[in-house]
Amino acid sequence: MDEAQIEKLKGKSKQCFATFWILVFVWIFFSFIDVNRPPNNTANLKISILKTLPILTMFANGVSRANAHGWTTFYKFTALSFLLHGAGDFLLGEDFFKIGLGAFLVAHLMNIKAFNANANAEVKEKLPFPGHQRYYLPFLVVLIIALAFLFAVARTDEETGENLGIADSIIMTIAVPIYGTVLASCLWRSYHRRDKCDAKTESADMWKRVMIGYCIYAVSDTLIAVDKFSTAVGEPQRTIIVMTSYWGGQWLITCAGDVEHPASNLFFGGLKIGASPEGGEAA
Q: How far apart are CA 82 and CA 121, in angstroms?
């Protein structure tokens, strides 16, 4: 890819990022207007649609990378995952929590599928957990502790007295642990790609940004889970933390589209192709 093509990709990222902020401010504006109005279906639908639009700018950014590099497994699934995230945003906004959770689950599975391949070629690895087995135990311990907390500390609806904990719903008892495992698998996979990327064609430092993005993303999902199943979090703190960590994490995850050509990235264009100090074998 020559300099002109790289600059063209960076230009598309600038357009997507500018559009993203415009849409975010529109969402904030209408959310602020409607906050003191009686709730109604039309207003809720409008806010749900407006909340969905910012993530679609990341989908557009992913499509520009797929068009430039080719719709390989890697670029195809990284782009499509943002589309599923948009669907999940809308469904959660319309109180279809279980269906929205399913959309996010499929989006994470798409990223796992994408991260199983080099950007320019297919590779075969164990899914979802590559890497040395010494990492399995601490991973499972942290996951079990987090899920145990959500199961043990159940939230009760202040008006109806209804138990809102995970254990009160058979579907949630099964779905939430599965979702948590898949989300953690995405973080695991990006961590592994940082250490074992194709040092001749990919940037380990760019993969590090993807890994950090998933860590930040996990903050958003954790707060949603705690608020819904365990301890209510007040507004507007909840929305501010959830959306900033969600969108911030997602923008770092978009760095996956630039692992082959770091110079095309809007934020980290100075990064170079090469392996991390810990390793550099092909993934």
A: 22
Q: How many helices (H) and strands (E) does the chain have?
A: 8, 0
Residue with tokens 């679609």: 56
pLDDT (tens digit, 9 = 90+) per residue, 150-196? 555 555 555 555 555 555 556 666 777 788 888 888 888 888 888 77
E strand or H helix that includes residue 220: helix 204-225
User: Looking at residue 100, what DSSP letter applies?
Assistant: H
Q: Say whether the peptide bond before residue 130 is cis (omega within 30 degrees of 0).
A: no
Q: What is the pLDDT of residues 107-146, one digit of tens each?
A: 999 998 888 878 776 665 655 555 556 656 666 676 676 6
CB 223 within 8 A of CB 246: no
Cα(270)–Cα(262) distance, rounded to whole angstroms?
Answer: 7
For 159, other C-beta atoms within 10 Å of its C-beta total 6
Residue 40 and residue 16: Cα distance in Å, rounded?
31
Q: How far is CA 270 from CA 1, 17, 61, 206, 207, in A?
A: 16, 18, 19, 10, 14
